[in-house]
Task: structure prediction
Amino acid sequence: MNDFPYKFISDISKKEVVHRKPIYSVHKWFSRKTDSLIRGILLSLMNKNVEKSFYLNNEMLLKNKIVLDPFFGGGTIPINVLRMGGKIVGYDINPVSWFITKCELESVEIEELKKTFNKIELEVGKEISNYYKIKNENGELCDVIYLFRSKKTKCSKCGKEIKIFPTYRLTNIKRKNFINYTICKNCGSLIKSNDEIVTCKNCGIKFNSFLGNYKRGKVTCECGNIFNLRDQKDVENEIIAIEYYDNKERKIKIPDNDDIKHFSEKFNIDFDFIPNQKIPYGDETKRLFNHNYFYWKDMFYESQLYFHSLLLKNIKEIRNVKIREQFLCLFSNFLNSNNAFCSFQKDYNKSEPLFGDHHFAPIVISVENNMWGAKVGSGTFKKFFQNYIKAKEFNYNIFEKNYNKNEKIFLEKEKINAIFAKNFEDLKDKNTFLICNSSKNMKELPDESIDYIITDPPYFSSINYSELSEFFYVWQRILLNNEYIYFKNDSLKKDKEIVVNKSRNYKKDDYIKELKHVFLEGRRVLKNNSYMVLTYNNNSIDGWVSIIIPIIESGFKIIKTYPVDIEKNSGLIDNIRNKMNFNLIIVCQKTLFELKEIKFQQFLKKVKKEILKNIYYKKSISYSDKVVIIMGKIFEVYSEYSKVYLNKSLINIEEIIKLYYEKYLDELIYE
Result:
């Protein structure tokens, strides 16, 4: 896998990461890699000219080849292996990941999906749709787009009720002739103005529309008292504004008495279709406890719980198992945009789902979508279904986009159609073997049975997959707990997840040890002289040390690394110095090799020489991205010269990386 065209793949990936292929709208997953990256790797492994072959049909490229992905996550690698005619063996310990990928890979009758949707619309959709209606000033019924909700509490000193606002500006759209909305901090009236300092026509108060009474978890009362919101036990929410669709126009109003009465309606919820589990304490979920969320159902408004239960109950009644599971997957993804953690993008006038990033973020101003769907607005069941249809159509209508020409190139011979195997022997006649279990013991696979390993291992401590995905798991298991053993437990098992986590006391040494087990198993099942290709990024000494040690100690040699610009608008949240856009492709070979000796000063020179060959290095890229390139070259040189001496003392890779961070990174980057 020499001369991988990382610039060509980067140019596609950094655009594709914003406009992903339709198939990935089946369900949210965390930090998926792009199709273009995996497609490029597969073409390169098969000695194809990547740039010439990228936009051509490659349906036979991997014929009779078996690819292993020990951490298949959101399914990007399995999807691309099937497209190119290969067979995929995938491991993931997370049942949510397993279920999502299963639904992505299997083909389904589009007309049957549409027929089922129409039935759900008749039986449930009309009731949901009727709920999200209000009367305009002429008494005509209009569709609600969003209900704006604010948390409220009582001042811990004076006892006055306070509605909580990080900013009083409701919208901040910078569009010609658009006048923005602000909520009056005194009387709650609606003010239309683009000015920063506004005056309320109703009560006459003048104030800064951008400066609210809430900042960094603390509320400031008019009496001067400042207190932590998390200390308040009587926090409620209230609808403060309604956006609705009236005669082809979006309008916002303050709820009147009829609106308040209507949306205060109590619901008879069927709790058999609502998760009753407590939220487990963890590195990510502790944020929820800090804001008094203790059960998963606490993360939803009562109206959302009621309509979610109606939908789930209806989905359970679908007789066709494949169709039922596809609708369950659709419903599960729908939860991401219909909960009490959905914020409002003021600049774009639309809602933002819970997992816009890879963490739980309790908010004080949220939006409740019209759950079934108006003519405009995001996050509705109708729109999720429309996107789901496009996703499943993609299985048989695959395309790549040439961004230079702004055109789709359909690859009519490539298909995604999983025929699931029950065991490895089944792969003689089938093409997909997904195992929901740890890849630390691949007992299902014979020695030297795998042609290539391609995977995206967990990024040290960056994303706690199980803590995040349990939000979906507790809903999915309501229908799946009697269907699959993976969904029997009330909570996701997290003890086997290879992610550094303080709450589980899972440390760097545990990560290295467990990842080494996976790579040792990979080495056992991989054919001789073949390749294992990883994608990885991090911005810490421990993160880099923790990937190279298990690679080397499991008997792989790093023969080449390539930086790929893939994280535009979605960089990891734990970056220290500035945003990281690059991922590192790490190409490893299962081979026997002799350890060579080298002095550290010579090591430095070799690394620098290799760095300067990289076409990105002299360009205007971030500090963090240059670190990715440097680490890649350190890995390559160390893999060739694993006996490195400094002042006649042997130093290991951890000491080398620490030396670079402490002394040589700035010198290399700023020279």
Summary: Residues 110-166+212-390 form one domain.
